[in-house]
């Protein structure tokens, strides 16, 4: 959705190549998104070659915005929780590879 939302119309092959998906997997995903009215799909020809184009609908763009906002809230809460812990600095040092003193 994020790739398609960043374009007006894009070709199936563009989405496939940038999302690193097989044709069948992308087709299934686009069908699901289309059935949910999150994307619009058009089929046609360029010369004699069949082509499929896709774009995000207004509903799809709004759902993506809401999803990204929810993910941002989760990340913000996790950051706030980590900062509120008294041992947050020690955990950060441990995650960066710093050695902690061993007692015992």
Distance between the ends: 52 Å
Low-confidence stretches: none
- Estimate the global geometry from the Cα principal axes: elongated
Arrangement of strands in the largest sheet:
1-3-2
Element-by-element helix/strand order: HEHHEEHH
Mean pLDDT: 89
Query: β content, as a range?
Result: 15-25%
Number of helices: 5
Q: Structural class given helices, strands, pairing?
A: alpha+beta
Q: What percent of the residues sit in helical stretches (DSSP H or I)?
A: 55-70%
Description:
Helix content is 58%, strand content 17%. By secondary structure, it is α+β, with helices and mostly antiparallel strands. The protein has a three-stranded antiparallel sheet with strand order 1-3-2. The longest helix is centred in the last third of the chain and has 27 residues, at 58-84. The relative contact order is 0.12.
Summarize the structure.
The protein is α+β, with helices and mostly antiparallel strands and 104 residues long.
List keywords for this structure.
three-stranded antiparallel beta sheet, 104 residues, alpha+beta, single chain, 17% strand, 3 strands
């Amino acid at each position: 959705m994020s790739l398609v939302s960043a374009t007006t119309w894009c070709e199936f092959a563009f989405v496939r190549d940038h999302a690193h998906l097989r044709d069948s997997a992308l087709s299934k995903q686009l069908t699901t998104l289309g059935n949910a009215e999150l994307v619009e799909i058009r089929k046609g020809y360029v010369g004699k070659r069949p082509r499929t184009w896709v774009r995000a609908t207004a509903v799809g763009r709004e759902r993506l915005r809401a999803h990204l906002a929810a993910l941002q809230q989760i990340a913000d809460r996790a950051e706030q929780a980590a900062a509120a812990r008294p041992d947050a600095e020690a955990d950060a040092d441990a995650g960066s590879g710093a050695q902690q003193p061993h007692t015992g």
